[in-house]
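User: I'm putting together a teaching handout on how sequence relates to shape, and I'd like one worked example. Could you take Phosphatidylglycerol:prolipoprotein diacylglycerol transferase from Thermoleophilum album, show the sequence you're using, and then write out its predicted structure as tokens right after it?

Assistant: Happy to. First the sequence, then the structure tokens directly below it.
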Amino acid sequence: MDIAVITIGIDPTIELGPITLAWHGIGIAAGIAVGAVFARRYASERDLDREALLSAVIVIALAGIVGARLFFLLENDPGALLRPADWFGTNGFAFYGGMIFGTAAAALFLWRTRLGLRYLDAIAAGFPIGMAVGRVGDVINGEHYGPPSDLPWAVRNTHPDADVPSTAMAYHSGGLYEVVLALVMFAVIWPLRHRFQKQLTLLWTVVGAYGLGRFVMFFYRADSEDAALGLNGAQWTSVALVGIAAVGIAWAKLRKRGSSASDRP
């Protein structure tokens, strides 16, 4: 009798005449759109400019793509950073790079336009549900797999083009774990969003929770090289982000409230 696991046989790509669409890209686009919807709702509740928020989301998306690619190359092939021809590619992106570069770019954009960093809280409010939607494409493609498993939530991707070593085996699915992590974060943080009165405490809470969840998750993923002390590069990045988030929350709580309307809760 076959072991009961989650079985997915969907083609990782969709052919529309001369156009080929990948579920990975479709998921990311849908995730950005859904996350933006919830971020706009948060912005409306805080009397923030929704058009300005949309501009910040676009900045995060564009900078995030660049950052994710550069971070992947830095982790896996640092020499490629000296070869501009290798900067471009449809495969090979590290989400932490997109998260770090995108947030930094949005912060710079908001500072230059004097809109106030409260917009980062709005984006953070929509991030978990956007991440949950965005990672569905990774589950379909078989990306971010871990060790083989016969657990009921292990995933077997049976399509021959799936990104797994063997279509006959089920694996721990990093993509599925990211969807679950993001949904749990959304279920906890979204109903409590009005409790984050201090500017940036919502942002740092999301960063810390995501970093902690990913630290655990990467014990069940095989796409990050070991770095030191039995931990891989992604886990050390998670540790750094959790530490930065803790400092950020403490700083946000001690910081005097700004006097501008954009900084008011």
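A couple of points you could highlight for students: The beta strands are 6-8, 13-16, 19-22, 145-148, 155-157, 171-173, 226-228, 231-232. The first strand starts at residue 6 and ends at 8.
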